[in-house]
Specification:
Elements: E1 5-10, E2 14-19, H1 25-34, E3 38-39, H2 45-58, E4 64-69, E5 78-79, E6 105-109, E7 115-119, E8 126-132
Parallel strand pairs: 4-8
Antiparallel strand pairs: 1-2, 2-8, 3-8, 4-5, 4-6, 6-7
């Protein structure tokens, strides 16, 4: 299956592609890797603000998967694409993250001003792939 990616955008050291269709977290991860990319990992405030601004302008009513999750150890969030722990920069929505074995994957949440929330990894959302130059 060919996935039509939406917009391409770049901050000068990485480029990103926002999907046009929703997938589960694992399917989104697969599609990014199929393209030689990874689900996005947010490492700095500047990167987060850059991505959020793009989403606000182009997709104000959508959720987007990141590579963040705590699948292997409840409460320990890491970026799947890098293997690094989430932090020191974090941009959680109010009341997130919550301790739950049902919600393990980090999403940009439209209902939380596009801050990070956790959701069930089987939910279907759009996603952002990234690749360094």
């Amino acid at each position: 299956m060919i996935i039509d990616f939406g917009t391409y955008f770049s901050n000068g050291w990485r480029y990103y592609e926002a999907s046009t269709i929703p997938l589960s977290w694992s399917a989104a991860k697969y599609e990014c890797r199929r393209k030689g990319m990874n689900l996005v990992s947010i490492e700095t405030r500047e990167e987060d603000e850059f991505i959020r601004q793009h989403l606000f302008v182009n997709y104000p009513n959508e959720h987007f998967w990141t590579s963040g999750n705590d699948v292997f150890q409840e409460g320990f969030y890491y970026w799947d694409s890098t293997g690094n722990a989430v932090g020191p920069y974090r941009n959680w929505a109010p009341t997130h993250p919550v301790a739950s074995t049902l919600y393990n994957c980090i999403v940009y949440s439209r209902g939380a001003d596009l801050r990070w929330a956790i959701a069930s990894c089987s939910d279907q959302y759009r996603f952002i792939c990234e690749q360094s130059y």
